[in-house]
Amino acid sequence: MTSPEQTLDPNALSKITGTQEFLNRLPIFSGAPAGVTKMFAYLAKREEYYRGDLIVNADVRCDRIFLIMSGKVDIYQSHKGRRFHLQLLGADSINYFGELALLAEFDWPFSARAWTDVVLLTISREAFTKVMERFSDSYSIAVQKIIKLHINRFADQRNYLISHISPEAWREDPPEDE
Amino acid sequence: MKKTAADNSVRITERSLFYWILRRHRPMQLFLLLVIVISLFFKVFPLEMQKRIINQAIYLKDTHLLFLYCGLYIGAVTIAGLLKYAINVMQLYIGQKILVEMRTELYHHVLQLPLQFYRKMQPGTVISAMTAELNAIGFFLGGAIAIPITSVLTFIVFIGFMFNLNPLLALLSMGVYPLEIIVIPFLQKKYNRLNKKRVKTTRSMANVVNESISGIHEIHGNASYRLEEKKLSSYIQQLYALLKKLFVIKYGIKFANNLFQSMGPFILFLVGGYMAINGQFTLGALVAFLSAYEKVYDPWKEIIEYYQSYQDAQVRYQQIMKIFDLDPAHALLPSSRDPFTLQGNISMKNITFSVPSGIKLLEGINLDIAANEQIAFVGYSGSGKSTLSLLIAQLYDASQGTISIDNHHMDELSKLDVSSNVAMIAQQPFIFSGTIRENLLYGIQAIVDENHVPDRSQVLSVIRQVGLQDDIIRFGLQAVLTPEQCKPFREKFLRMRQIIQTSLKKDFEKSIEFYDASAYLYYSSIRDNIVFGDSLSGEFVIEHLPDHSSFMELLREMKLEKPLLTLGYAIATQSVALLADFQDDEFFFRDNPMELEEFTTYAQLIDRLNGPQPKDKEARRLLLILALRFIPEKHSIISLPSAMEAKILGARRRFQEIVIHIDTDHGNGLEMWTPCLKTCKSGEQMDFIPFCPSEYMYTHTLLDNILFGAVKSENILDEQLRDIAEQAFQDEKLLDEVMDIGLNFEVGSKGDRLSGGQKQKLAIARAFLKDAPILIMDEATASLDNTSQARIQGLLETGYKGKKTVIAVIHRLDLTPAYDRIVVLKAGRIVEQGTYDELMERKGAFYDLARADS
């Protein structure tokens, strides 16, 4: 007879599969070889923040991309002591930020805080580079996707700003004689 | 070390090898000589006894005489043996004492040699000379006097004894020696020539290896392994060829010796036997003669070997002294006065500095710097600005012209005069292996006695001035303290823990999973969850646990062994499958219970296992280790079944009850700070320390102890909590204690464990601590970030203005407006000088430089 402590199934303990399924649903990893997403699922880190917690502080060196698993994240920029809201990201909309950190080292140009309690998955630039070294065929596609994602996010931010811009910022066409 | 005036009268490199031998430890050497003379009697006496035993005791069949002579024989042999032992020990002792003095004095000389010497000398040559080559000489020094005297006297005494027995036989058996006197020196000369070449080749080889190790980053960067191997292999081959020849000659000498040695008995048996048969020689005399002949050859052999090792040592000694045969440029100490206390007025008249090839790096420099003036040297690369600053620091000497400080000519200033009054910071400072504290005090300790070394508050003040405070605090927090080191601050540190656990709990619990005796810890390993503590002796480290009978019994009792084996098996199978193509990079193993170097072992294990419950002990051990290392929230490879958490919690309680015998039920409320550690009967502290709020964990860092939990994310801890923690430390007046601990951080070889910026700040702090009237900064802040650079610059403007003479070699021209005067150099000459505004207005060389800079 099998004793109760022997009933544990080693295969059922795998944690990577669930994470891999989540990554596959993200545009950045859609269509990527299974080996690539599996490694990112293995190397990704889970971070949890409570409502109001600072996630990223502007002017601090960037090092990872953030993928929102649950909750909402406020992207904002401080200017002359005031916080200017740029974007509200959620698990069901544009669910990532810091994508360019995978490609280059720079200081965060924005700040991010937890708008609600959030669960994030992060992938460091080092992990991205190390994995891509092994899957060099996928690298250029990944870079293109990252840039497209960035443009999508940038366009979303711009549209938000335009819709909230003051009427004084709008200009007529330049006069003919100038 | 005792030294006579005569000792110092001859320059070290001009002393002969026997200079050291004859002038050092004379009383001990005389005593050794006396022992040698006494030992001679006990060497000859047994031969006489041999003769008497045969000729008298045996011949007369007198047992009384036999016992007497045998007793005297064994007594003499024993005393001779003991004396020989004493002679050997004394020889070695004297030799090593002389070697210590030789090495110390030579190192003293070598360190003082001018920098020009080191420009052309490869470090490998100096290292080889100071270590291996001197060692070889040391072995000779020990017997330099004793061996020849012992050997010659023994030889004479035995020869005398042989002549006494039979002059004809003695003369015949001595006939072979003159032949050796001709053959052996001939071979030895050849050996010496080759030996000189060997020393040279060994040094060259040491230089190549030394250069490769120093430039290992470049070699790895260029994958130039073959290139470097090729460089060394030519020397290896040369050395091989030389050693082959050397050994042929060495063993040729040995062969000649042995051959001549065999000739003696042949003559003795032939002639002596004939004489004994004819009754011209007694049997006892023949036996004694044969023994004497055998013994006479030992000193002869020793003389020959002594001659060889003398020649070898002489070659090495001459080669060593030849490379260091240079005078130090300046005296170390002022003669019969204290070092000057200078104001910092510097005057340079018509200074020229040339390198040995004749190229002039500086020419016609005339410059006066007033005390407390702040001067910036600027110019393009190669303009000579750094060289000029090195001349002022007496690191180089001008080829022509004069430099004086406070009207003292540089030639009359000793090294101590200059080092007491000049603090120098190089662009790439050297950090010595040792602690940060030792490096900080390096400059000051050289010029003041122990009582005047800056105290802790002065040291910490300088640390803060240069912006090294955060780094030192971090080093302090990462220190693992022994109970003795911790004792004075233990209560304060525990008080810090209490603050974090109470008033700062809300801030910290986001990033720390506090140790809680009643909760499962997801950021701690399964081992930590069960053992929930540490033993000072390492009894409960993971690798020992599968062999720990009580622990394993507990796992079985709690029905945890099999689930843990399954867990270990799952980690191993998943990791082996996932990382098979990544096993060459440690990065992929950082968040895995398996370590990179274990991959092959586990891959082989999984290959041969049929399931998670293997029979053999080693396989179970390996699986259990992986399971015990598993940290659910850190290791993403598998997840922990929730059913196991409760079992592990149960095991924790049971483990502390039956293995440790303590009660850990102190997790909350008012009882939280109640001591939970039982003490031994003797009152000594127990080996095991549980994760108890009232106990300091001596196997953990100070930071671990204060946080009292596992860090969830390093990012959050670093970014958000440092300020809060620092303020709390400050409030508790603990910051200085933590910094003091941080000062004991070991910086590694050449400061390898420090970043470039940390090294530079450490060098700046070292110079500031010296508080010298003249501060020379040779692009000292160039490798610092803008904030740190501005901090140091601000310090010069506020703390040093009008108080110290500052000479700064500067590359960044935006820093120059703060200086009283800017001196512009071009191609080794001063082309312009004045204030920033004057030079910009003049639109000359500085203006051009500033424009090029912008």
What does this structure look like?
The complex is a heterodimer of chains A (178) and B (854). With 178 residues, chain A is an alpha+beta fold. Chain A has a single domain, classed as Jelly Rolls (Sandwich), CATH 2.60.120.10. Chain A contains 4 helices and 8 strands; from the N terminus they run H-H-E-E-E-E-E-E-E-E-H-H. Chain A has a 4-stranded antiparallel β-sheet with strand order 1-8-3-6. Chain A has a 4-stranded antiparallel β-sheet with strand order 2-7-4-5. The radius of gyration of chain A is 20 Å and the shape is globular. Chain A starts with 15 loop residues before the first helix and ends in a 14-residue tail after the last helix. Residues 1-6 of chain A have low confidence and may be disordered. By secondary structure, chain B is of the alpha/beta class. Chain B folds into 3 domains: 11-323, ABC transporter transmembrane region fold, CATH 1.20.1560; 346-468 and 747-853, P-loop containing nucleotide triphosphate hydrolases (Rossmann fold); 526-661, no CATH class. Chain B is built from 34 helices and 14 strands. Chain B is extended, with a radius of gyration of 38 Å. Chain B starts with a helix and ends with a helix. The interface between A and B is medium-sized, with 32 and 33 residues.
